[in-house]
Amino acid sequence: MPKSPAWNVIGIKWLISFMPMLFLLSILPTNAEAIPAFARKYDLSCTSCHTKAPRLNAFGEAFHMAGYQIPQTEEGELREKRQIGRIVSEKTFLNIFALRATGNFVESISGGHPPETNLALPREIELYFAGTFTEDVSYFFNLSHEADTIEGIDNGRFEKTTAFGLGKEFFLMFDLSPSHRGATNMHEITMTGPMRMGPMIMVGKVDPSTNFSYPTNRQFILDQPGRIDTNNGTIQRFTLSPYAFSAKFFGLSTGEGNTIEVTKGVLYNTPGDFGIDVHAMLGRFMLQTGVMQGIDAGSADINEKKDPYVMTRVNFGSRNYFSGSASALAYWGNDTAKVGNDLVDWFRTGVSGNIKYKLLDLYGALIWDKISGLPAATASVFDETAFGMTLESDFILTDRYLLSLRYDRMDAGGFANQKADGEVLTLQLRKYFRDNYAVYLRDSVNIGRVSTNPLQNFRNLIALGVDLDF
Amino acid sequence: MCTLIKTLKRISLLCFTIVLMTSTAIRSQEMDHSSMGNPTDETQDQDTMEKMNGNRDGDEMAVMKGKMIFSMSCVYCHGSRGEGDGAASMFLGPYSHPRPNNFTSGIFKFRSTESGELPLLSDLMRTIREGIPGYMPSFRNMGEEGLRAVALYIAKAFIQADLPTTTSIKYVKHVGPYIYSPQSVRRGEILYGIMKCNECHGADGKAGRTDLRDERKLMVHPIDLTRQETFGNGTSHEDIYRTIMTGLDGTPMPGYSDLFKGEEDSAWDLVHYILSLQGR
């Protein structure tokens, strides 16, 4: 691991001052099961659905796919469950409500200009309300409070904001599957052919990648906020996020003219935007299609041309502690972004894969982007293609420790005089004091070039933070 | 006339005896079959199913339905061969008990039969209906028909042996002199010591030993007896009585039906004592 002298001094000082904190956290009480909403509702531990929260295991994916229902139970709301020797109605508020708080306590960034050490409070607090209204209608509402996010304003300038409002996802989901419930005898039920689910329709603010083999939103390694020079709104360091899902083009702005941060999750891999999504499963295959408003179009329909997308996925493995999936996507961003004052089309294709074997979880995504319809004047100075890759491996070391390694690579596009490529390796150790409460220590190393370009403006980034679900 | 009637009577009596004899012979043959238990014999499996409940056609259909339910709701944890090696299974208990058990091993935790025996069909149905707190969801909303179908499928496809239809353990009703009283709790407390429950569960019931392993060599903690909401085998008086009598096969928790033989009613004292520990 390349080290600069600055890293040594800051890193060591930092480690010494935070050892006592780690120690304090490690002696907190550790038993008791986890309890966020669905776990509370079904009386299950988090690991029934998650490898570790927030990533899903095969059963969690089936539950998610079926519209937050345990497949085949066709329950709508689970109306009764066993509790302390009695059957009680389970409709309590805590069964639909959950809360998540994440963020760094401390971080130290070296090799940049200038190096920095920060103390911070958890940056993101999210409230979830999720469940089923009826057997066929489910809901997922998410409100979030996010500090320190970077928003593009006009012409290459940015600002840091603190936002409270609609979270990443906010939708209703309708199950349109031909119902088994009407079947009057077993013959009818068994004669319905291969296993299938859906079609399910999601309407609202949706994250299309939620069914992709590498779901954009379910990250163990959280996005690391970037840095802005508040005097002139220029960006000094981009947010560190999975590069496969990011915008990748230097010099693009939204339809409204706001600069798009090169590492912001966009298009199919947006963390959530307004649209309609349909997905269905037949046997091992899933087909998904939908339309989105475009980047940052908001609920108001300002982008006249909609962005359609399709995704297919195949699942494999049902024994020997093995499972996996592979997915491919295509997204047509019509008039989705601007170069200067001209609207351009943005086409994205990608593949992703996931293999879970015993306690090892391997996954990755390769995403190609292409801009077309450039004005003739810019065509010669603008690289129209970009590529991103994110590979991750998570391993559950013991009942309490999770080790993650992620590799991110971006071959950026955009204006030749602005663009830079990035390559980052992140190692992270999470300690789960409970299933729903983890503290992490991460180290992200820029294994490419260090320069003043905001994509490359750090060598080493260490952070200690928390991920708490209630 | 008279002799004709007599002969008719005699003939019908003869017929009746023949029918009776052949039917008992067939039945005892069936029993022999089932105790020999040739698991690969298709027709015989069906016979068993038929004997257990209802008609043959209905059960074939039920097993098919059970297969469909299993592949949509259970494979993720239990694996397509029922060996407990589903894709999600290890994440449930990365390095400790429990994980979904291997149905083909024939070792079942939640039974009303003696330790070492297979469960009844109704035992499987109860487990699936109620779920296992923390580890397996309740499938109550699947309905009794669905529960029975998937239990039949497990028996036929994975256990591949005849499930017993009765148990030799005596289940004394929780009525009359056996209902809860402070005296009963006190007697239960004494039994708890005499029967050495404390060696594993600790004097206060709050899980003592940390060196126990299950049959797969995974670490298993004796359950905290003061937190009945975590009991996998149920929390009613009857459930705990059953746990004590049958034990939990595949874990170190032994069955005590032998020790209680002839004095089954005093098991209620122990049940009352455990329930008195709640919330401590």
Tell me what you see in this structure:
The complex is a heterodimer of chains A (470) and B (280). Chain A has 5 helices and 27 strands. Chain A has 470 residues and is mostly beta strands. Chain A has one domain: Porin (Beta Barrel), CATH 2.40.160.10. In chain A, the strands form 5 sheets. Chain A has a 16-stranded antiparallel barrel with strand order 5-7-8-9-10-15-16-17-18-19-20-22-23-25-26-27. Chain A has a 3-stranded mixed sheet with strand order 13-24-21, with no helix packed on it. Chain A has a two-stranded antiparallel sheet with strand order 1-2. The longest helix of chain A has 22 residues, at 5-26. The radius of gyration of chain A is 23 Å and the shape is globular. Residues 1-35, 76-90 and 181-193 of chain A have low confidence and may be disordered. The longest helix of chain B has 35 residues, at 2-36. The termini of chain B are far apart. Chain B has helices at 2-36, 42-52, 56-78, 89-92, 121-130, 143-159, 182-194, 198-201, 237-246, 267-276. At the A-B interface, strand 1, helix 3, strand 3 and helix 4 of A face helix 3, helix 4 and helix 6 of B.
Kindly report the average pLDDT value of chain A: 82
User: Could you state the CATH homologous superfamily of chain A?
Assistant: Porin
Radius of gyration of chain A: 23 Å
Question: Mind telling me which CATH architecture of chain A this is?
Answer: Beta Barrel
The mean pLDDT of chain B is 82
**Which chain pair has the greatest contact?**
A-B, 48 and 51 residues
CATH class of the largest domain in chain B equals Mainly Alpha
Q: What fraction of the residues of chain A are assigned to beta strands by DSSP?
A: over 45%
* Overall SS class of chain A: mainly beta
Oligomer, anyone?
heterodimer
Percentage of residues in helical conformation of chain A: under 10%
Major sheet size, sense and barrel closure of chain B: none
What number of structural domains do the residues of chain B give? 2
The biggest beta sheet of chain A is recorded as:
16 strands, antiparallel, barrel
Q: Quickly give the structural class of chain B.
A: mainly alpha
Contiguous uncertain segments of 5+ residues of chain A: 1-35, 76-90, 181-193
- What is the terminal-to-terminal distance of chain B? 86 Å
